[in-house]
């Protein structure tokens, strides 16, 4: 079998997604997700100009060799654009291998380690009351783990919310430039414990809760937040500080027993190596797309397992149903899988473009045993939704200082 073409699509169905199809001379094709939120076209060009020409004529069954070829062969290793492009190729190759074998990808990885995949959903709101109402309905829907995010009263928008305008993850293409939000750490630190106090008071201790700080604290502030939230027994606190300097987590770890999660922007195991090896985190959030594919993610999982770190892959709305499917196969297999971020079944338009048989029952996600990844991409439907430039927001402190969003 040989690769005859690699097609790259960028469409805005509900939001922008970069999708690839690897076509073979035997008619079998594989699909992959190369979406890099706000930088989609960089990945499209990388795939079209720098990857596709090198893969035509190669044997798609050689997944490992192709991965090494793209990673080592670029000379310019790592980085989100390169690794997302490699991730898309890798997913599509696993899809082809599964289709050829007549097996779902989780079987190729080693088979199921569990009957279904525990999912966590988002309860976002403009006020604590709104978040509590959403949390209540999610518990009724069957969620066992929920992430809570509330806007700060009086702020222009906080992570997970957009100040009453559009949801943060919707297409922002009506704004020519990144939306600008405001951040105030002191107000946040005073506010967020109340969010979790209310959740425990109203819904008890059984529901597992988590929260995403989105890289907005300093290490000592992060240590304090971890302590403040200890009474509310979080499953994890995510991205308290950026991990550019992995040593930073030593300070946080010395001060709090709240479990820590990080990794959605990591591109290779090297971003997580010290965090894992020194047991400075509890959950690794690397994704099949931004982390370079299923091939490296399974190695990260095995490495993490040696240090009792569990996998909790990123699953925000900017990861397409193809990445979602790839994660579910990975999660079914990974012995040290913990929880999968899951934002629902998408809009009707998305479901006309991405065909994917997924079920959610009593907190667990299930996929069918279709060969490969079990997700298809309808090119003709996708063409109805042309790409629209859209940025993630940026954040400033109230005095105008640029901050992390
Ligand atoms: O594109 C960025 C989003 O995927 C990110 O902000 C979502 O932090 C996120 C999460 O945990 O889902
Ligand atoms: Mg996050």
Task: Walk me through this protein's architecture.
It is a single chain. The chain is an alpha/beta fold and 405 residues long. Helix content is 36%, strand content 20%. The strands form four sheets. Strands 4, 5, 7, 8, 9, 10, 11, 12, 14 and 15 form a ten-stranded mixed beta sheet that branches. Strands 1-2-3 form a three-stranded antiparallel beta sheet, sandwiched between helices. Strands 6-17-18 form a three-stranded mixed beta sheet, with no helix packed on it. The protein is globular. Bound molecules: 2-keto-3-deoxygluconate and magnesium ion (MG). Magnesium ion is lined by residues 212, 238-239, 264.
- As residue ranges, the low-confidence spans are none
Shape: globular
DSSP, total strands: 18
Distance between the termini: 45 Å
Whole-angstrom Rg: 21 Å
By helix and strand content, what is the structural category? alpha/beta
What top-tier CATH class of the largest domain fits best?
Alpha Beta
The main sheet comes to: 10 strands, mixed
Helical percentage: 25-40%
Number of domains: 2
Bound molecules: 2-keto-3-deoxygluconate, magnesium ion
Quick rundown:
The chain has 405 residues and is of the alpha/beta class.
Write the layout of secondary structure elements.
Blueprint: E1 3-13, E2 15-24, E3 29-33, H1 40-55, H2 63-73, H3 80-101, H4 105-109, E4 117-125, H5 128-141, E5 145-150, E6 180-183, H6 185-203, E7 208-212, H7 219-229, E8 236-238, H8 248-255, E9 260-262, H9 273-277, E10 283-284, H10 294-305, E11 310-311, H11 321-333, E12 340-341, H12 348-353, E13 354-356, E14 358-361, E15 364-367, E16 375-377, H13 379-382, E17 394-397, E18 402-403
2-keto-3-deoxygluconate binds next to loops.
